[in-house]
Design a protein that fits this description.
- The chain has 517 residues and is an alpha/beta fold.
- It folds into 3 domains: 1-98 and 181-262, 3-Layer(aba) Sandwich (Rossmann fold); 109-178, no CATH class; 265-314 and 326-336 and 453-517, Rossmann fold.
- The protein contains 16 helices and 21 strands.
- The strands form 5 sheets. Strands 6-7-8-3-9-10 form a 6-stranded mixed sheet, sandwiched between helices. A 6-stranded mixed sheet has the order 15-18-19-13-20-21, with helices on both faces.
- A hairpin with a 2-residue loop joins strand 9 and strand 10 (238-244).
- Helix 3 (114-120) crosses helix 4.
- It starts with 22 loop residues before the first strand and ends in a 12-residue tail after the last helix.
Length: 517
C-alpha cells in the first residue's frame, strides 16, 4: 500500500457495492475542551456485514461509537438510518432502530443477578412473569453464543470472572427481543479464551448471513482481517481509510493507523545482570497452585503462558499478596514489587482521582517533602511518564475521560514510577493498540537492560510472549514446560499447554504433575 493511501478521506469511501447503507455518519465533529475527539468523521455500515474499526488508543473510536448509540451528541454532523436523517438522535432512537453496543468497560450492574441485568436493558421482559422469562431468554442466548459457558442465570455479576461477565454482556446485547440490527462489539474477545472467541465469531458469521450487521473493534489485527468484510481505520478523530478486508495486510493497517509496520520481535536481551536472582519461588503450594518453582534473574523478562485459567493469574496474585513476607511460604527471595492488573475498572484505576494521582500513588516516597506531597515533584514525575508512554491526556485530566488503552498505560506508568525491582504484569495490554504495545515492549526491554528491573508477565496472547527471555507454561496449576529464547513460539506454547492432560489420558504421571487438585 502506498503512503498516499493513508491520506484522510474527503468523502464517504466507495466500497459499498451499491448497497443502501443501514447507517451513515457524515461530517461528524466533537470537541471536549481542547481535545478534538472527532474531526469530520464519516462512516458507513451496510446491512448484513461485519465492519472492522481500528485505530490507536485515543483515535476517536469510542467517541464515534457513543455517537452511533446516542450517548454522545455531536457538535456537528448528520446521522442517517435506512436513508433517513435522524434529528435528535438519542439512546432511545438508537435502541428503537435496533442498535446495541457491548462496551470495552463492561456496563453490567455487579450487585444484580445475571437475569436481573437482562431485565434492566429490556422493556419486552417486564411483565409479571419477568423472572422466568428473563432466565429462559438469557440462558438460551448464552447457550447459543457460548456453548458450555457454565454461567447460572441466578449468579450475581460480581461473582463472575471477567470472561464470564463479557459473555453475559454479549449475550444480552444480541437477544432477539427488540430486533437487533446493528451490534457494536468493543474489544469483545479481550477477556475470552480461544474457544469462546471462536464460538463468538461463528455466531457473528451466522447472524451476518441472516442480515444483522456488526461493528467489530479490536486491537488484535489478525481477528479484524479474518472476521470482517470491510475495515475502517481511524486516526486523530478521522476515518482516514476504508478498505475491503481481503485487500489489506496487517502492515497496511498499522501504517494507516500511524504506526511503524514490521515485526515486534524483541531485540537481543541484555538480561540477568551478574547472575543475580530477583525472585526465587520454590515448591509454592496453594489450593490452586501445585509445587510451583521458578526463578527470575535481575533484568530478565519472564512470561507465564498456557490456556487461560490454568493458574497464571493466581500465581501473580499470590506473589503480590506475599510481597511483604519475604522468605516464607515457598517464596525464598522476593524483591520490592509492583503489580499491573488487566482488569483496570475492577482493581486498577482510582476513578475519582485525576491522572496525576493515579500515577504518583505508586511512588509517594519520591514526591514527598517533609512528609507532604510536593506538587512540583509530582508534576515532574507525572509529566515524565506521560511523555515516555505517550499517554494522551494532561496531568489534571480525569482518569475516566481517557480511552481504555490510555487508562491501561496509566497503570503501567504507576508501576514503572514505583521503586520496584520486580513488576508483575497480569495481561496488561488487553484493549491496547499495536503501536502502543510496540512502544511499551521497548520500554520494558529498556527498563530491564538499563535499570536491571525484572518482569513476570502473563498474557492471553501467545504471540506476545515472544517478547520474553523465558516462558513458564502452566496447566492445571502446575508448571509443565519451560521455554527459552527461540523456543518461545505460539506453536510450542500451545503444544506444551496440553501436555499435562495428554499425560493423564495415557495413564502416565508427567514430571510436572505435583499435587493433584
Amino acid at each position: 500500500m502506498t503512503p498516499e493511501a493513508a491520506t484522510p478521506n474527503t468523502a464517504t469511501p466507495d466500497t459499498t457495492d451499491g448497497r443502501a447503507p443501514f447507517l451513515r455518519l457524515t461530517h461528524v465533529f466533537k470537541r471536549y475542551g481542547r481535545t478534538q475527539a472527532l474531526d469530520d468523521a464519516e462512516l458507513v455500515v451496510l446491512p448484513g456485514e461485519v465492519l472492522g474499526l481500528v485505530g490507536h488508543n485515543g483515535a476517536g473510536k469510542s467517541t464515534l461509537m457513543r455517537t452511533v448509540v446516542g450517548i454522545t451528541k455531536p457538535d456537528q454532523g448528520s446521522i442517517e438510518l435506512d436513508g433517513q436523517e435522524v434529528e435528535g438522535h438519542s439512546l432511545e432512537t438508537a435502541r428503537a432502530s435496533g442498535i446495541r453496543i457491548v462496551f470495552q468497560e463492561l456496563s453490567l450492574s455487579p450487585d444484580l443477578r445475571v437475569f436481573e441485568n437482562v431485565v434492566v436493558g429490556s422493556e419486552q421482559l417486564r411483565d409479571r412473569h419477568w423472572r422466568t422469562h428473563a432466565r429462559e431468554r438469557i440462558s438460551a442466548q448464552l447457550d447459543e453464543v457460548f456453548p458450555r459457558h457454565g454461567i447460572s442465570p441466578w449468579a450475581r455479576i460480581e461473582s463472575l470472572t471477567l470472561s464470564q461477565r463479557q459473555m453475559v454482556e454479549i449475550a444480552q446485547a444480541t437477544l432477539p427481543e427488540g430486533d437487533p440490527r446493528l451490534v457494536i462489539l468493543d474489544e469483545p474477545t479481550s477477556a475470552l479464551d480461544r474457544e469462546a472467541a471462536g464460538r463468538l465469531f461463528e455466531f457473528i458469521a451466522a447472524r451476518r448471513d441472516e442480515g444483522m450487521s456488526f461493528i467489530l473493534i479490536s486491537h488484535r489485527i489478525s481477528e479484524i482481517l479474518e472476521h470482517t468484510d470491510r475495515i475502517a481505520v481511524m486516526r486523530d478523530g478521522k476515518v482516514v481509510a476504508t478498505r475491503t478486508s481481503s485487500e489489506v495486510t496487517e502492515d497496511d493497517l498499522v501504517t494507516l493507523m500511524g504506526g511503524t509496520a514490521g515485526s515486534t520481535r524483541k531485540e537481543v536481551s541484555q538480561r540477568a545482570h551478574d547472575g543475580e536472582i530477583a525472585l526465587d519461588v520454590q515448591e509454592l503450594q496453594t489450593r490452586k497452585l501445585h509445587d510451583i518453582s521458578l526463578k527470575i534473574g535481575r533484568g530478565e523478562v519472564v512470561g507465564l503462558a498456557g490456556l487461560e485459567g490454568q493458574g497464571q493469574q493466581e500465581l501473580l496474585l499470590e506473589l503480590w499478596h506475599r510481597r511483604a513476607r519475604r522468605g516464607s511460604g515457598g517464596v525464598r527471595q522476593a524483591a520490592r514489587m509492583a503489580f499491573v492488573t488487566g482488569d483496570r475498572q475492577e482493581s486498577g484505576v482510582f476513578p475519582l482521582w485525576p491522572l496525576s494521582l493515579n500515577i504518583s500513588i505508586g511512588a509517594l516516597r519520591r514526591v514527598l517533602r517533609h512528609g507532604v506531597v510536593d506538587p512540583g515533584k509530582e508534576r515532574r514525575l507525572t509529566s515524565d511518564w506521560l511523555e515516555r508512554l505517550k499517554i494522551r491526556g494532561e496531568s489534571r485530566s480525569e482518569i475516566l475521560d481517557l480511552s481504555g488503552g490510555n487508562q491501561q498505560k496509566v497503570l503501567i506508568a504507576r508501576a514503572m514510577a514505583a521503586a520496584a525491582e520486580v513488576i508483575l504484569l497480569d495481561d496488561p495490554f488487553r484493549g491496547v493498540d499495536i503501536s502502543t504495545r510496540q512502544d511499551t515492549y521497548r520500554l520494558i526491554r529498556q527498563e530491564a537492560s538499563e535499570q536491571g528491573r525484572s518482569f513476570l508477565w502473563f498474557s492471553t496472547e501467545n504471540g506476545e510472549l515472544e517478547q520474553c527471555d523465558r516462558v513458564y507454561v502452566l496447566s492445571e496449576g502446575a508448571i509443565v514446560a519451560e521455554l527459552e529464547g527461540e523456543e518461545i513460539t505460539e506453536e510450542r506454547v500451545i503444544a506444551a499447554s496440553f501436555s499435562r492432560r495428554e499425560a493423564r489420558s495415557d495413564g502416565a504421571a508427567p514430571a510436572a504433575e505435583g499435587a493433584s487438585a
